[in-house]
Amino acid sequence: MPSGDLLKAGEISGVFGVKGWVKIFSFTDPRENILRYSPWILRKNDQEREIKIVSGQRHGNVVVAELEGIADRDAALALMGFEILINRTQLPKPNDDEYYWTDLIGLEVETDKGIKLGKVDHLLETGANDVLVVINGNTERLIPFLLKQTILEIDLQARVMRVDWDPDF
To answer: pTM surpassing 0.85?
Structure first.
């Protein structure tokens, strides 16, 4: 499977109990949605394996999961630090004016007047709204992700985002 078809959905961050359950730091929203995407591809360094979820639930700020073939604490400990990847085809198609962050990363950002501001490096979740981190050389801009306000147009095919933003800011 091409690596471009895999998306990082979380990480195994610890163990839970003595029966082989693992703690998951999930990047999904809500966090427990990571349990909807089975099987997972676990990757760490040059190791990779596919694993199915038996059961799981949210537990405070983390998600805990029972994984097929992991029956004790030692086996769970061996999975610490593994990235959890899912196949892109497992994701639901976003509605109009909805975007997966992974699709926005790398887009060229330019003003409505055609001035290039850089590329989307990553996004931040602030509570009020998401924020694009746009980098051009040593310049970093934080642009609020407000559709039809600061974000005027997103063309995923052309890999361009047009924004209403002062290039000097």
So the answer is: no
